[in-house]
Amino acid sequence: MMELAVQLGEGAVDATRDGQSAVDTTSSVPVQDDFMGAYVEKLQATVREAAGGDDEAPLRGMRVCVNPGNGAGGFFASAVLAPLGADTSASINLEPDGTFPAHMPNPEDREHERATTTAVGASGAEVGVMLDTDVDRCGLIDGMRVPPEPVNKNRLIALSARVALEAAGGKGVIVTDPVTSAGMTSYIASCGGEHDRFMMGYRNVIDRAAETQPEPALLAIETSGHSAWRDNRFVDDGTYTAARLIGRLARARREQGNPQLGLLDLVGDSLQEPRESIKVKMAVAAGLGGVPDAEAALCEALRRTAAATDGWDMEPVNHDGLRCAVEAAGGSGWLIIRGSLHEPSVSVQTESDVAGGTATICEQLLRFEQGACEAAGIDLQPLRDQAAAAAVATPEATANTARTGGGPRMSAAGGEAPRSSTCRVCKSSYAPTDNGPRACRSHPGSLRGESLCGKQPPRGFGKFAL
């Protein structure tokens, strides 16, 4: 599609004509008549380059489960990964079907995540790939964790940022949307980069990245899974991101001689993730036209809350909505207020390091609402419901909680993780907190995988000047 756009822009193809007569034979721009073939070759080259070495099949033996949700991405399994040696037999929902019989093709959707995680776990796949309808968004699954864990949202940003910065020599800018977790900025900095937290909307972050001075940013990426790399001309392409990260995993395994490494091992343990993460959407009675006034009323309530509450500090830079950092006994958190551009609603998105922290944040915000928000037509009941919620981790929070400084490791069903797990090497039982997520005492850090953003990378991972 990008090649066609170039041809149209340069006049090599006349969009007003059909067939061969549309081609300007005098143009110096080469005309591509096999778009899909060229695209597949590019993605395969991306995997090989990320994997390093000279192996034409760098994914040989790697089990990958692709779930495009009956969208357009089924080719990624059969035409891209399989010819590179990957075993893609566990892939599901590959045939395009506009009725989407299995679930909506959306890497953020819980059903899409659940279906992929289940397929990965049942098949023993090492990597899961989730693609949206037109494959411009992706999410991944680390099948080396027991049970398999998602690598989407903040985790996908962290891994992509690390890989982009590594390739650039440990220096550059990463542009994201405004709802990344508080720990993202420090994680990117630990990799040598600079975090530019900008606006919602993939077009906004891409334009911001392309216009960054003195040189364009390395990566534009949203928590939704939209991602555009400078190395890929800022094309919004989920398959490119998946190809690059899978190839990087293959390289790490080869260089360290450890086929048990998973995607989250590449992220490492330095990404601070919240214990709870929620988004509360509230309808606006006046419709889409009433959203600006409703957003202003809710933002003013947040300012009153911050002015009257110790530990609540407004973020100094707000490109989109209004964000506030929250420091409280036992942990920290944040919240952001935004009005929707597409539907008559406003939202409060908040995260916390402690169980029940998001409910406490919502409750405090309501205390300073003073009737102005309801006067602006905001239905506050969803916010009241959240404020009254029991202090338990939500499904979304547990799905995004890892063994990091942001809180204890959570099980998929909520609560703390089991006290024992099974080593993937010797199959013995061990306590997960002893030696990392998959290592028993006989097989410690070599399976854990240190953060590749550290000052001293482990032997075998190659050179990292980060």
Could you characterize the architecture of this molecule?
The chain has 466 residues and is of the alpha+beta class. The protein has 4 domains: 24-151 and 237-267, Alpha-D-Glucose-1,6-Bisphosphate, Chain A, domain 3, CATH 3.40.120.10; 155-232, Alpha-D-Glucose-1,6-Bisphosphate, Chain A, domain 3 (3-Layer(aba) Sandwich), CATH 3.40.120.10; 276-392, 2-Layer Sandwich (TATA-Binding Protein); 420-458, no CATH class. Helix content is 34%, strand content 15%. It contains 16 helices and 15 strands. It has helices spanning 2-10, 35-51, 75-81, 110-123, 153-167, 183-190, 202-211, 238-256, 263-267, 291-308, 357-367, 372-375, 381-387, 395-399, 432-435, 445-448, and strands at residues 64-67, 127-131, 138-142, 149-151, 172-176, 193-197, 219-221, 227-229, 276-283, 312-314, 322-328, 331-339, 345-352, 421-422, 429-430. The strands form 4 sheets. The protein has a 5-stranded antiparallel beta sheet. Strand 10 and strand 11 (322-328) form a beta hairpin. Helix 2 packs across helix 3, helix 2 packs parallel to helix 8 and helix 11 (357-367) packs across helix 13. The longest helix is centred in the middle third of the chain and has 19 residues, at 238-256. It is globular, with a radius of gyration of 23 Å. The model is unreliable at 390-427 and 430-466 (pLDDT under 50).
